Amino acid sequence: MEDQLLPSTERKQAAQEKINELTTFRAKFQADIKKLVKELRFFEENDTCPTCTQPITEETKESHIVEGKARAKELSDALQTAEVSLGRRNEVLASLEEQLAKCQEAQSEIHANNQNIKTYQTSIDRIKKEIEALNQNMDLNSANTDLNLMIEEAASLVEEKLTLDEQLTYNLVMSEMLKDTGIKTKIVKEYMPVINKLVNQYLQVLDFFVLFHLDESFKETIKSRHRDTFSYESFSEGEKQRIDLALLFTWRTVAKMKNSISTNLLILDETFDSSLDHDGIDNLVKIIKALGKDTNVFVISHKGEVLEGTFDSKIEMVKQKNFSKIKRT
Predict the structure, then answer these.
(1) Calpha distance 174→161 (Å, rounded)
(2) Phi, psi angle pair for 36, to nearest 5°
C-alpha cells in the first residue's frame, strides 16, 4: 500500500505544479490581452501621438490595428487552450486527491488491523502457555471426577429450577387473584349489597334513621332523611357509636353467613360506657336480646346501675388493696 501511495503523492505534486504553471500562463495571457486591447483602442481613438505630437497616418493605424488583432487572436486561442488544460488538470488533481484519501484511509485501517493482529497473537501465545502449564500439572482422573460432579450438580439445579419455575407460576396466578382487581373485587361486589342492607337495618333498630352506603372501595356515603350528604366525622360521638355498632353486628352476621360454623360468643367491653344515651342503650339491649339464647354475651361495664336487671346474671368486681375481687354473683 505504501508503494501505491508514493506514486499517487508524486502524481499529485506533479499535477499541482502543472496547474500552478498553467495558472501563471493564464494570468500572463490575460495581462497581454489587456495591454493589447489598450493599444488597439489608442490607435482607433487617436490621430496624433501624445508623446511627439506628430500625426498618425491611416496606414500606420491600420497596420497596428491589423497586427494587434492578429496578436489578440493568438493570445485568445492560447488563453482558451490554457483554460481547457487547466480544467483537465484540476479534474486530474481532484481524482488524485480522492485516490490519495482512499489510500490513506486504507493504510490507517491496515495499521489498525496489524495492531489488532499483534494483540490477538499475544493473547493466543499466552493462552497456549497456560494450556501447556495446565496439561503438565493437571490430573486427568481428578478432572473427570470434578466434571462428573458438576454434571450431577447441574442436573440437580435444573430440576430445582423447574420446581421453582412451577412455584413461580402458581405464585403469579395467586398474586393476580389476590389483587384488588381479582377475587377480592368479586367477593366485595357479591357481599356489598348485603352489608349495606344489614347496616341500615341495625341503624334503624338503634333509632338512627340515616341511609348508610359503602362502595366497593369501602368509602362511606351517609345521607339524612332529607338526602343531605354527611361524612362520618360530622356526626356526634353518640351517632358515631351507633354507626360503629351497626357495622359490628353487620360483620358478625356476614361472618355467620360466610362460614359453616358461627361463633356463639360475643364480648362487649365498655360498649355501654361510651357515648350512648338512654335510648341508645335500650336499642342495643334489644339487638343483644335478639341474638337468641344460643349466643353467650359478656358485657363489661362500669354502669352497673344503668344495666341493673337487664341481663340474666352479673359478676361484680371490686378493688381491695389494689387487687380485684369478686363481690357477688
Answers:
(1) 20
(2) -65, -40
Query: Measured between alpha carbons, how far is 249 from 202 in angstroms, rounded to an integer?
Result: 8
Helix runs in 179-236, H state only: 183-205
Cβ burial of 235 (10 Å; 0-12, 13-18, 19+) is middle
Where in the chain are the domains? 2-134, 145-178, 183-328
Percent helix, strand, coil in the chain, to 5, is 70, 10, 20
Q: Are strands 265-269 and 296-300 parallel, antiparallel or unpaired?
A: parallel
Residue that is written with C-alpha cell 362520618 in the block? 232
**CB-based contact 5:104 (threshold 8 Å):** yes
CATH of domain 2-134: 1.10.287.510
Question: pLDDT digit of tens for each residue in the chain (329 aa)?
Answer: 445 544 566 766 776 676 677 677 667 767 777 776 777 676 666 666 666 666 666 676 677 667 767 777 777 777 777 777 777 777 777 777 777 778 788 888 888 888 999 999 999 999 988 887 776 665 667 777 888 889 999 999 999 999 999 898 888 877 776 666 666 667 677 778 888 888 888 888 888 888 888 887 778 888 876 667 888 888 888 888 888 888 888 888 887 777 666 677 778 777 777 666 777 777 777 777 777 777 777 877 776 676 776 777 777 778 777 787 777 55
183-328, CATH topology level: Rossmann fold (3.40.50)
Q: How far is CA 25 from CA 18, 33, 79, in A?
A: 11, 12, 8
Cα distances from 101 to residues 15, 16, 17, 93, in angstroms, run: 16, 16, 19, 12
Common-topology check for domains 2-134 and 183-328: no
Length of the chain counted residue by residue:
329
Residue type at position 279: D
